[in-house]
């Protein structure tokens, strides 16, 4: 609570403090752009060059603002940052952005410029002092010009072929890191748990016992698949990405695949629960076939034949064993 009471409102800042705030903001944004560039340089050198250029533009704005401050107020610049001012636009920490897809990082950078321009425009409207209005208006114009300059840098460093190549690389990395292990987990969870769940269901015709068996099988398979995926490949040579991400994708989707047809057995009526579970299985198997077609480029009929036929055989085996 004390922290919030110590934050000052923008309307209470002097022109010198507004200028100091603009200087520190431009400095922070340059650091952010350079962080983006370093994060992307190895895989997306053309986009990294765009962010290098944007950081240089921010440096130019900062130098111009410092010159203006030196001319008007002298050498000593007050220490005031975004977090010191209530209502001032905030920047997300770089580590929250680093794991975003490439296109989202580009969008984040464009949003940074729009936020700064909009803030300066709104602040200028609320100011009654002519000199302050002019200063804020100039800052808004500088940010708008920077956004236009960013577009020029994109055209210079990121032509259509380069952008398409980077987008394809980003899509491939997404598939390798998230879709492939997640799909493997979904297939394992959906298919491998069919036999024990439906064998238990028809052997006992007790919905609660069936649910507990399904819950145990799903969670256990999820933990096993998650650890197996994470430990099988560190991603350095294969390029499949973080083992932690892959392990999470595989483990969670394995558990989801099994829980999908275990949850209906929370319904106390056996045949109602079983019919709903069958319907869920039908949609699970067709969803797997669609994902294989969409992301793995497997022909839909072949994927459907493999997954649906295999799942149907496992389901039938579970029913026959439980009924025997």
UniProtKB/TrEMBL annotation:
<feature type="transmembrane region" description="Helical">
    <location>
        <begin position="273"/>
        <end position="291"/>
    </location>
</feature>
<dbReference type="GO" id="GO:0012505">
    <property type="term" value="C:endomembrane system"/>
</dbReference>
<dbReference type="Pfam" id="PF02915">
    <property type="entry name" value="Rubrerythrin"/>
</dbReference>
<protein>
    <submittedName>
        <fullName>Rubrerythrin family protein</fullName>
    </submittedName>
</protein>
<keyword id="KW-1133">Transmembrane helix</keyword>
<keyword id="KW-0812">Transmembrane</keyword>
<dbReference type="Pfam" id="PF01988">
    <property type="entry name" value="VIT1"/>
</dbReference>
<dbReference type="InterPro" id="IPR009078">
    <property type="entry name" value="Ferritin-like_SF"/>
</dbReference>
<dbReference type="InterPro" id="IPR036259">
    <property type="entry name" value="MFS_trans_sf"/>
</dbReference>
<dbReference type="InterPro" id="IPR003251">
    <property type="entry name" value="Rr_diiron-bd_dom"/>
</dbReference>
<feature type="transmembrane region" description="Helical">
    <location>
        <begin position="208"/>
        <end position="227"/>
    </location>
</feature>
<dbReference type="InterPro" id="IPR012347">
    <property type="entry name" value="Ferritin-like"/>
</dbReference>
<dbReference type="GO" id="GO:0005384">
    <property type="term" value="F:manganese ion transmembrane transporter activity"/>
</dbReference>
<feature type="transmembrane region" description="Helical">
    <location>
        <begin position="303"/>
        <end position="322"/>
    </location>
</feature>
<dbReference type="GO" id="GO:0030026">
    <property type="term" value="P:intracellular manganese ion homeostasis"/>
</dbReference>
<feature type="domain" description="Rubrerythrin diiron-binding">
    <location>
        <begin position="17"/>
        <end position="152"/>
    </location>
</feature>
<keyword id="KW-0472">Membrane</keyword>
<dbReference type="InterPro" id="IPR008217">
    <property type="entry name" value="Ccc1_fam"/>
</dbReference>
<dbReference type="GO" id="GO:0046872">
    <property type="term" value="F:metal ion binding"/>
</dbReference>
<dbReference type="InterPro" id="IPR017040">
    <property type="entry name" value="UCP035918_rubreryth/DUF125"/>
</dbReference>
<dbReference type="GO" id="GO:0016491">
    <property type="term" value="F:oxidoreductase activity"/>
</dbReference>
């Amino acid at each position: 609570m004390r922290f919030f009471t110590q934050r000052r409102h923008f309307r209470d800042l002097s022109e010198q403090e507004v200028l100091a705030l603009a200087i520190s903001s431009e400095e922070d944004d340059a650091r952010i752009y350079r962080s983006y560039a370093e994060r992307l340089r190895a895989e997306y050198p053309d986009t990294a060059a765009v962010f290098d250029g944007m950081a240089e533009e921010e440096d130019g704005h900062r130098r111009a603002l410092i010159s203006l401050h030196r001319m008007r107020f002298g050498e000593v610049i007050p220490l005031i940052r975004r977090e010191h001012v209530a209502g001032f636009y905030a920047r997300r920490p770089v580590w929250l952005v680093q794991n975003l897809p490439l296109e989202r990082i580009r969008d984040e950078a464009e949003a940074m410029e729009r936020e700064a321009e909009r803030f300066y425009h709104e602040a200028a409207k609320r100011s009654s002092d002519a000199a302050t209005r002019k200063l804020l208006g100039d800052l808004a114009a500088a940010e708008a010009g920077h956004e236009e300059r960013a577009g020029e840098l994109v055209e210079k460093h990121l032509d259509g072929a380069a952008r398409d190549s980077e987008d394809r690389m980003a899509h491939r990395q997404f598939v390798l890191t998230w879709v492939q292990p997640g799909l493997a987990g979904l297939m394992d969870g959906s298919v491998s748990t069919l036999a024990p769940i439906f064998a238990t269901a028809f052997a006992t015709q007790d919905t609660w016992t069936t649910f507990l068996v399904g819950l145990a099988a799903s969670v256990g398979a999820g933990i096993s698949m998650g650890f197996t995926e994470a430990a099988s490949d560190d991603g350095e040579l294969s390029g499949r990405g973080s083992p932690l991400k892959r392990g999470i994708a595989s483990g969670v989707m394995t558990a989801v695949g099994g829980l999908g047809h275990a949850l209906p057995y929370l319904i106390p009526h056996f045949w109602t629960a079983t019919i709903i579970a069958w319907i869920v299985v039908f949609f699970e198997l067709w969803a797997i076939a669609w994902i294989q077609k969409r992301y793995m480029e497997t022909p839909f009929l072949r994927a459907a034949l493999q997954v649906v036929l295999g799942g149907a055989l496992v389901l039938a085996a579970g029913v026959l064993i439980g009924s025997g």
